[in-house]
Amino acid sequence: MHSHKMESKTFPMEMNTSTNIGKQAWIEKAMQDRRSEWTENKKLTIYCGTWNVNAKKPSEESITPWLVPPPNHGANKEAKVVLPDVYCLGFQEVVDLNAQSLLVDHNASKEWEEHIQQTMLTKKDPLFRHYVLKKTVHLVGLLMLVYVKKTLSSYVRTIQAEVCGVGILGYGGNKGAVAVRMTIYDTSICFVNSHLAAHKNNVQGRNSDFRNICKRLRFKSPMRDEEEEEQIGDHNYTFWIGDLNYRLTSTDLTEVYREIQDKNIGALIRSDQLVIEKAAGRAFQGWHEGPITFLPTYKYETGTDRYDRREDKKKRFPAWCDRIQWKVDGSVAAGTDVKMVLYQRAELKMSDHKPVMAWFDITAQKVIQREKTRVQNDITRQFDAWENNQIPQVSLDKTRLNFADIRFERPQTQIVTVENIGKSLAEYYFASGAAGDGSQEAMPTWLTVEPKTHYIPPGHTIQLKITVHVDTKSAGTLNMHQDKLSSMLIFRLKCGREGDLGKDYYIEINGNYLRSAFGCSLSYLARTPMPVRAVGGLRTKVNAEAVLTLPKELWRLVDFIYRKGIDEEDLFLTSGDDNQIADIRECLDTGRAFREFSVHSMAEALIQFLVNLSEPIFPMSLLDELRSDSNINDFCMQALLRLTPIHYNTLIYILSFLRQVLKHTKANKLTSTKIVPLFAKCIFHYNPLAAEKLQNMRQRPYMVLNHYLTSQSFVTS
Questions:
Q1: Above pLDDT 90, what percent of the chain?
Q2: CB-CB neighbours of 157 under 10 Å
Q3: pLDDT (0 to 100) of residue 53
C-alpha cells in the first residue's frame, strides 16, 4: 500500500476524496462512508499473552493463572468464569539463543506446544475444551500459538504465518519476530511476537529491529494480485507482543529497588526506554499500550518471586522487558476502537521473566453481501456517470532527471510532481521505456518508480518517487560494460472510458555510475588488476591474459583483519559502522589506502563483499549431490576439484584465513559453530530462512563448511 500525499480539495459532485486515491480506492472510500448500510457489528474478546521462558522446559507449575486472568479469580468464587474468543500466546527463548541454535532442529518448541495443548484442549478441564488451535509458528527461540473458540472457527479464514530474523548480521533467527494474520468475520487481525536486541545501552538496536521487522515481515495478499504483499500495518487490528527488551534509563540500582519496594510505578515508568522512544517518535509510533500497574517483569531468580540481586551474578536493573502493544487502522468504523480490559502479569516462577497478559474487547464486522452489492452498484453508477467523456490533462514539473555519482547500494531518489490541470479524473501508468536506439525496452533493474499507476482527481497533485538503486542484480552488467545510466520513462494517461489510450509524457533519466567491485564476478575481478573504478568500460578492456590468483579486494580486506583484528572479541558477530563500511568500499573501488577503520567495520565489509558477488564461490548445485549416505570427506575433496581455478583459489584462501581465525579462539571467542552460519551465506549464498521449507537442504551448507574448517584432511599452511 502506498502513502503518497495529495492536496486536499473537494471532488466534483460533492464526492470527497482522500490520499492514495484511485478509482478502486475512491470506490472503497465511498463504501467506507456508507459501511453501516452493509455490515453488522460482532463483539470479540482477544487474549494476548507473552512469556520469555529462559530456555526452560515445561514444568509441573500450573500455567492456568496466566491463561485465566485475575478478573476470573476474584473474591466471588461462585462467579462464572468468562474466557476470550481468541487466545494468542507468544513465547521467547524456548531454546538457548546461541549460534548452535541456528544450526540444529530443536524439540523445545514442540514440547511447549504440547504443554499448551494439554492445558488448552484437555477434556479434563472444562475451561478450555471448547477451543481449537488455528495456527502455530516458530523461529529458533520464538513460538506463537493462536486458538479460537470452536463456535467461532468457521468464521476464521485467510490464516497465514510468517517469520523474520533480525539477529546476527541483520538476518539471524536468534532475534526477530513471528507473526500470524487471519480474518474473523470480515475483519483482519494480525498478531506479532518478537524478541528484540538485548542489553540496556542498545536502544538503537531495538529500534532498528522494530523498523526492520515492520519493513521485511510481509504476507501474501489474499485479496490482491499474487505478487502484492501486505505488511504488519495493513490490518484492521494488530497486536504486538513479546520480549521487547526495553530497559530503565536509571543508573541508580539502589534507588530503583527502593521505588519497587514502595511500589512507586509512576516514578519508574518515567525512565522506561520504550515510553521515551515512543514519545520521541523513534519506535512504535502510533502504537498504544495500556497503563502499567504491575512491577517490572525482569530479572528474577528462577523459581522465586525475588529479583536477582545475588552478589555472584551480573547486576541487572529490573525492567518491563515484556510488553503488549496494539494498533488500529483507519478503516475501522468510528466508535469500535479497542477497549483494553486487563493488562497484568502472572506470578509464575519457573523463568527469570514473569509472563504478561492483556485482554481486549474489539468490534469485528460481518458483511451483509446483498446490501454490499446494492451499495457498491449505486456508488459505481455515480462514478461512471461523472467519468464518461472526460479528457484528462496533467503537467509534470520536470521531465529530465540527472543522478550524479551513483554508488553501489546507495540509492538516490528524486521527485517529479504531477498535477491534474484538467476537469476530469486522470488515470496513468508507466508503459515500457524507450532504449537509446528508439526501440522498446523494459524498465531497467536499477530503476524504480512509485506509484507505478494511480488516479489523480482534478486539481490534485501526486508525487512520483523515481529511485536509482544499483544492487547485486544490476551491478554485474554495469561494472563490466557501462558507467552511464540512461533510460526513458513513458508516463501514459488513459483517456475517457477505461482502456482507451491518452497522451504520453516522457521522463528522461540520466546518471553517472561509479563502478564497484561489489556485485562483480570473481572471474572479472581476477582479470582486472587495476581498481575497478579505473576501468573505462568498453574504452578500456580488461586484460584477459593477466589473471590474478584471487581478487585484490579480497586480499586487502583479509590482510587488514589478519594484521589488526584477528584477536578482536566477537569478530564478525559485531556490526560495523555503516559510514565506515561505505568508505571501505570506496577505498577498494578507487585503490585508495585504508585509514584506521574499525576492525568490525572491515569484517562486515568482507561479509558484504562475498555476499554480493554475482555468483557464489561454491555453487549450491554441487550440494545437490551430497546425499545422506555420502562420505562427507570424499564429497568435499571431489567438490574442490570441480571448481574453476579462481573459485578454487578464493575458497582455499578464505578457508585458510578462517582456520587462522579459529586458532585465536581464546582471544576472539569464536568457534566454528559461530562462524559457519555467517560464512555459509558468504560462500554458498545460502539463505537459511528461505531454505526453512526445504528440510533436506537446511544442514548441507553448514555440514560442508564445518568439515572444511575442522577436518584435518584440509589443513592449510
A1: 50
A2: 11
A3: 95
Q: What is the rounded (10 degree) CA torsion for 114, 116, 122, 124? A: 120
User: How many other CB atoms are there within 10 angstroms of residue 84's CB atom?
Assistant: 21
- C-alpha distances (whole Å) from 408 to each of 43, 446, 475, 510, 545 are 52, 10, 7, 16, 28
CA distances from 698 to 164, 586, 625 (A): 17, 35, 14
Cell triple for residue 112? 511447549
Any idea which of 55-64, 278-287, 434-443, 636-645 has the lowest mean pLDDT? 434-443
**Lookup result for grid cell 520521541:** 280
Q: Are strands 400-406 and 501-513 parallel, antiparallel or unpaired?
A: parallel
DSSP three-state, residue 303: coil
- Decide: pTM greater than 0.85: no
Scored b (16 or more CB within 10 A) or e, 294-318 reads bbbbbbbeeeeeebbeeeeeeeebb
Q: Give me the residue label for grid cell 529500534.
A: 207
pLDDT tens digits for range 7-52: 333 343 344 433 334 677 778 888 888 988 998 999 999 999 999 9
Please state, in angstroms and rounded to a whole number, the distance separating the CA atoms of residues 368 and 37.
9
Residue 56 CA to residue 95 CA, distance in Å, equals 8
The beta strands (E) that lie in 210-355 are given as 218-220, 229-231, 237-243, 322-328, 339-345
Task: Count the neighbouring beta carbons within 10 Å of the beta carbon of residue 395.
Answer: 12
Report d(CA 539, CA 545) in Å as an integer: 18
Distance, in Å, from the CA atom of 98 to the CA atom of 168, rounded to the nearest integer, reads 10
The secondary structure element, H or E, covering residue 161 is: strand 156-165
Tell me 550's DSSP state.
S
CA distances from 578 to 13, 173, 607 (A): 52, 22, 13
Contact 576, 605 (CB under 8 A): yes
Neighbour count for residue 31 (Cβ, 10 Å): 17
Is the sign of the CA dihedral 713, 714, 715, 717 positive or negative? positive
Helix (H, G, I), strand (E, B) or coil at 43: strand
Residue 192's φ and ψ, nearest 5 degrees, are: -125, 130
- Taking CA atoms, 591 is separated from 120, 224, 336, 478, 599, in Å, by 64, 49, 62, 19, 19
- CA angle (231, 235, 236) in 5-degree steps: 160
d(CA 151, CA 141): 32
CB 511 within 8 A of CB 403: yes
Average pLDDT over residues 257-273: 95
For residue 646, give Cα distances in angstroms to 376, 618, 621, 635. Answer: 64, 11, 18, 20
- What number is the average pLDDT over the span 698-706? 83
- For residue 104, name the pLDDT band (cuts at 50, 70, 90): very low
C-alpha grid cell for residue 195?
524478541
* Burial class for 19, CB neighbours closer than 10 Å (0-12, 13-18, 19+): middle
The C-alpha atoms of residue 292 and residue 294 are separated, in whole angstroms, by 6
Q: Which of 191, 197, 171, 179 is nearest to 277 (CA)?
A: 197
> How many residues are listed for the chain in this entry?
717
Beta carbons of 180 and 160 less than 8 angstroms apart:
yes
Instruction: Decide: 426 and 455 in contact? Cβ < 8 Å.
Output: yes
- Contact call for residues 288 and 343 (beta carbons, < 8 A): no
Nearest-angstrom CA–CA distance, 56 and 93? 8
Is the CB of residue 96 less than 8 Å from the CB of residue 55?
yes
Residues 6+ apart with CB under 8 A from 180: 88, 135, 137, 144, 146, 159, 160, 161, 190, 191
